[in-house]
Amino acid sequence: MSAARYAVFGQPIAHSQSPRIHAAFGEAEGIAVDYRAIEATPAAFAAALEAFAADGGVGANVTLPHKEAAFALCATRTSRAQRAGAVNTLLRKGQAWHGDNTDGAGLVRDLTARHGLDLRGRRVLLLGAGGAARGVAPALLDAGILELVVANRTPERADALVDAMGEPGRALSAYWDALREQGDFELIINATAAGRGDGAGFSLPLSLVNSLTTAVDLNYGEAAIPFLAWARAAACRNSFDGLGMLVEQAAESFQQWHGVRPRTDDVYAALRARDALLVTAD
Ligand code: ATR
After folding, report:
1. Whose CA is nearest to atom 25 of ligand 1?
2. Any residues with CB less than 8 A from the CB of 176 and at least 6 apart, and which?
3. Per UniProt, where does shikimate bind (predicted)?
4. Residue 116 backbone zone (phi > 0: left; psi -120 to 50: alpha; other: beta)
5. Does some domain include residue 280?
6. When comparing pLDDT for 173 and 194, which is higher?
């Protein structure tokens, strides 16, 4: 029998930080980790995952564009994956995959443990209603926020996300063009892919911001620049990118596979230093 293998599946996957993160966790915790990146097209994803399992694959992360496909392939799922409708962590159980979604827990841990925010009783604005937004919405509600307002360029997707949360009254949708009427928020999260495109800037009403507002982009690197530039111009109290969430969701996956919660601070600091180099290098 082959050694236990782990991998991240995505397309593109060459720039994924996950192999580096899991190798660093394994080294720090004294656990030998065989974790690699596997590129698969949507059409080839299911077969690639089966081949991986046949070759000793017992755990995997799944990233763009496969999170919904992974959800559909699982025989069983955690309730947070069920609510998100997307899976980023797979665990082999017998002859089948068990699916989880650690993105939301990763975000909440980054905001609370690393940045010291108290989410309880806060109004939260979630921009976007795609896979990234769906991954984090359940955990935000579970963290005890007062209200989650979801705004998306295509309003029907915001409505669908809110319906999937099953918390009428606490999770609401809003029209992007009418955000001015929504009052102010202590937390504004960019879960859109807008910054990944041609660099078009963000234009959001300044009325969304109060003296406590933290702005978080789930992207990191260059994709986070437009939203974080808006946040600074709008005088948000804090603004963070998604690098901390990336490390924390990986730690959640690591814990499920290896039974140990790895320390994340050193890995985060190393990635932050590297990210700064990449962002400033032209
Ligand atoms: P992901 O898994 O990263 O969430 P996705 O499921 O394709 O990717 O979702 C992309 C999100 O970014 C969607 O909310 C999308 O809005 P639409 O549902 O209207 O497509 C949003 N998005 C992409 N480009 C955007 C832009 N230029 N302005 C605002 N929102 C944008």
Report:
1. 194
2. 127, 151, 152, 153, 155
3. 16-18, 63, 88, 103, 220, 249
4. left
5. no
6. 173
Question: pLDDT-derived band of residue 195, with 50, 70 and 90 as boundaries?
Answer: confident
Tell me the CATH number at 199. 3.40.50.720
What is the three-state SS of 68-129?
HHHHHHCCEECHHHHHHCCCCEEEEECCEEEEECCHHHHHHHHHHHHCCCCCCCCEEEEECC
Task: Confirm or reject: Cβ of 175 under 6 Å from ligand 1.
Answer: no
Kindly state the tokens that stand for 31.
Answer: 């656990």
pLDDT digits (tens, 9 = 90+) for 17-41: 999 999 999 999 999 999 999 999 9
Per the structure, the count of domains in the chain is 2
Residue nearest to ligand 1 atom 24, measured at CA: 194
- Cβ contacts of 203 within 8 Å, gap of 6 or more: 230
Asked if residue 132 has its Cβ within 6 Å of ligand 1, the reply is yes
CATH code where residue 252 lies: 3.40.50.10860
Judge whether residue 80 has pLDDT over 70. yes
Residues with active-site annotation: 67
> What confidence score (pLDDT) does residue 278 get?
59
Q: Residue 68 sits in which domain range?
A: 5-103+244-274
Tokens representing 75 are 């025989």
Task: Tell whether ligand 1 has an atom less than 6 A from the beta carbon of residue 192.
Answer: yes
Residue tagged 């029907």 (tokens)? 156
Higher pLDDT, 156 or 279: 156
- Using a 6 Å cutoff on CB, does residue 219 contact ligand 1? no
User: Which residue's structure tokens are 């982009």?
Assistant: 217
Amino acid identity of residue 125, one-letter, is: L
- 261 is known to lie in a ligand binding site: no
In sequence order, which residues have a C-beta less than 8 Å from that of residue 75 and are 6 or more positions away?
Answer: 93, 96, 97, 98
**Predicted local confidence at residue 282, as pLDDT:** 39
Say how many Å lie between the first and final Cα of the chain, rounded: 47
